[in-house]
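Teaching assistant's notes for section 4

Start the section by putting this record on the projector. Ask students to predict, before seeing the second block, whether DUF4230 domain-containing protein will look compact or extended. Collect guesses on the board.
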Amino acid sequence: MDFLTTVLLLLVGAGGGVALANALRKRTGITNVRTDSVILLERIEKVFKVVMAEGYFSEIYNYQDQKKILYLLNDPKKAMVIARSKVLVGFDFAKVRFRAPDNGDKKLIIESFPEPEVLSIDTDYKFYDIQAGILNHFSGDDYTQILDEAKRAMNERAMQSDLPKIANNQIQYMMYQLASSMGWQLQLPEADQQKLEALKAQAEAEAQPAKWLNAGNQSES
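Reveal the predicted structure now:
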């Protein structure tokens, strides 16, 4: 047996062994997957942010990138992402500006109150229908860009929904109730004060039927 024949037999045997090992691995369902992760704590900040409303959104985001080969042939790549998010809307109380009157009255004057903002977005992304071009392949930066754009679209959609209005109503009425429970009077900026008065009137109107019902039950007993 010459040298060339020996080498060919070794190569054939090695290839057969690899094929047999792969077949056995697929049949037994055994895979050897190893993952490593490193968690680094960058910084800790003290914050005073209050969540007043949460919403759940679903979004279908279509990504498409056209690229020409030699300025003649189109080589597109595209992907579809389905995102499901929980959005928390609230306020950063570090931006609140308030003061108490100099005469000692139990009154809290809110001079400036921040607008509601998205405090966090918890999103689950799933990629579907990923089609790469002949030369126009997906890179890690492409996936990062897709997820960033999908998250930005979700943020805009949340701020265009009723969440900011609900959060605004919630925080104003909560502050009013808290101040009243401690015997303080709350004064907001003029526009917010008008909204608060409307909320108070609505709450009192909704409470009236319950009072009449309780009064009726007591008289019957």
